[in-house]
Amino acid sequence: MSRTSPTTRLPRQRHIPLLDLGEWTTLALVLLAFAVPILVTNPQILSQANLILIAATAALGVYIMLRMDLMSFAVPCFMAIGGYTVAILGIKLGITDVILLALAAFAVPALIAIPLGKLILRLRGVYFVLVTFVLSEILQLLLFEAAPLTGGANGLVGMPPVTFFGIELFDNYQVVLTTCGLSFAGFLVAALFTRRFHFEFAAIEKNDILAESLGLACWKYKAMAFSVAAGVSGLAGFALVNMLMTAHPTSFSSMSSVNYITYTIVGGKGSILGTLVGAALLVSATDYFALRGELSPGLFGLLIIIVTLVARGGIVGLASSLLRRVKGAERKQKEPADEAPSAVEVQT
Question: Do 135 and 77 form a contact (C-beta atoms < 8 A)?
Fold first, then answer.
């Protein structure tokens, strides 16, 4: 009777954990963010926490697409769709329930991304990058030109406070609590989605042509990822509009996509924790360097160069590598002691 070794099993046959340690840690950190508006009253700290969570949630759109080695510049485009959807529902239709608005902010960009993905996901490399960047530019133009719906150059001003079971959330700490909830929803969706299709995305990242020749429907997974990334970006757009209480085209500049990509790469594109770490570091650095006036852009660029040169896998990748080395060194120190025969064994 033939026996099958565990090492010869196909990846699909392996047990897939619901989430790994890094993903559990990330969700725990986002949950801890709920304590900030409860324990802190300093407006500057609340504003900083708000910006970090919005930036980290937006960077998830980049992170999901990088699971398949696709560099997407379309995050501001889908943030704008999510943000303007919420603003139109709130200002023109009077819908303020935060749960309904969050569902709309996720669903509308995700649905729009499906036909768009069918067109552009056939592209690879620099062509995909270029088209996703142009997509954000085209949306900017549409936002300015469709004035009856979007307010044109004036934007949509006077977003009413969102409500949670009838309670208005308009204070600074309540706005941050809303952002925490939206950010946690975004991280939970991204973590579960990328974990569920971990092996498929890894195969596409390594070689999508080979994966397709072996029977993997790459187009299906790419379309799903593009749609989910758009939905998560829409949640970030909702949080941004709720913080500013206005939806304006300049809030979703196509150049802001560079920031979201930078957060992901500097933090570590190999782990969802990297988006949170990268956003926390670089948003804080932007705020700190802003005090240096003209030197601010140079100092910010220097920080990015140093991090990318020293930590090629990002900050989280570097920390993981150092941790593995320490564990490996400890294991080597223990092995000779375990293998050496004791004095009693030698005598017997």
Answer: yes
Query: What b/e string do you get for 26-35 counting C-beta neighbours within 10 Å, with b at 16 or more?
Result: bbeebeebee
Model pTM greater than 0.85? yes
The 10 Å Cβ neighbour count of residue 81 is 25
- CA dist 24 and 31 (Å) reads 11
Among candidate residues 262, 285, 286, 259, the one with its CA nearest the CA of residue 274:
262
Type of residue at 137? E
Report how far residue 286's alpha carbon sits from residue 266's, in angstroms, rounded to the nearest whole number: 14
Q: Using alpha carbons, select from 284, 320, 273 the residue that is nearest to residue 29.
A: 273
Alpha carbons 193 and 68: distance in angstroms, whole number:
13
- pLDDT for residue 99: 95
Burial class (CB in 10 A: 0-12, 13-18, 19+), 161: middle
Contact 12, 202 (CB under 8 A): no
SS3 assignment, position 171: coil
> 194: Cβ–Cβ under 8 A, 6 or more apart, which residues?
63, 64, 67, 201, 272
Residues 216 and 337: their CA atoms lie apart, in Å, by 48
Instruction: Summarize pLDDT for 25-64 with one digit per residue, the tens.
Output: 999 999 999 999 889 888 889 999 999 999 999 999 999 9
Query: Using 50, 70 and 90 to split pLDDT, how confident is the model at 224?
Result: very high
Q: Which two tokens stand for residue 146?
A: 């469709």
> Cα–Cα distance between 120 and 226 in angstroms, integer?
10
Greatest extent of the chain over all pairs of C-alpha atoms, in Å: 94
pLDDT tens digits, 125-146 = 889 999 999 998 999 899 999 9
Nearest to 315 by CA among 278, 348, 276: 278
pLDDT above 60 (res 164): yes
* Closest alpha carbon to 265 in 218, 292, 304, 232: 304
